[in-house]
Give the backbone structure.
Amino acid sequence: AQKITQTQPGMFVQEKEAVTLDCTYDTSDPSYGLFWYKQPSSGEMIFLIYQGSYDQQNATEGRYSLNFQKARKSANLVISASQLGDSAMYFCAMRPRGTGRRALTFGSGTRLQVQP
Amino acid sequence: NAGVTQTPKFQVLKTGQSMTLQCAQDMNHEYMSWYRQDPGMGLRLIHYSVGAGITDQGEVPNGYNVSRSTTEDFPLRLLSAAPSQTSVYFCASSLTPTGSDYGYTFGSGTRLTVV
């Protein structure tokens, strides 16, 4: 079984500052993928970034980076230079890369509010 | 535009009614899945499919049926709606089952209310 824990129900950040959203996970699978999604108030799910468990380097996508610490089972999302449009819910998710149930397990999310 | 299309966007049902939520993708993705999102929670898997003719249950399958007759379509059927099925439903697809760098593409969601 897999479990994703996001311990920050809500976060505030000033515009142009960096913010870290926490995510820890638990799995017995040796190979897995970690995802972050953004859900704005309009409701759609927007894929942000992916990290494979065997990737040697932390993933980056523009202003998003994933601070992956495998031994600690954490996959924190770092948003640099926050913008007002970053205000949204953020979900961490994971799935095993082997055979079997091929689906994402989601955390409960963190609501980020960017203040001007 | 390529992507995942869900219909309807909003629906109100009476307890006991049945209905089908439609999901279609035009990206030739093999993997498709249905999730529900309840207030204050992440998404939970209902059913998924790894290709035409192949479906399997997810975490919360009771009260729902699926079929996958084509690569493009993956409808979700509510057999006898109950208030506990009030939720937002998302359909998602992926080029590969692992998602990897492409992630999973989500539809815009269907907001269902059962009264």
Q: What stands out?
A: Chain A is about 0% helix and 50% strand. Chain A has a mean pLDDT of 92. The first strand of chain A starts at residue 3 and ends at 5. The two ends of chain A are 41 Å apart (CA to CA).
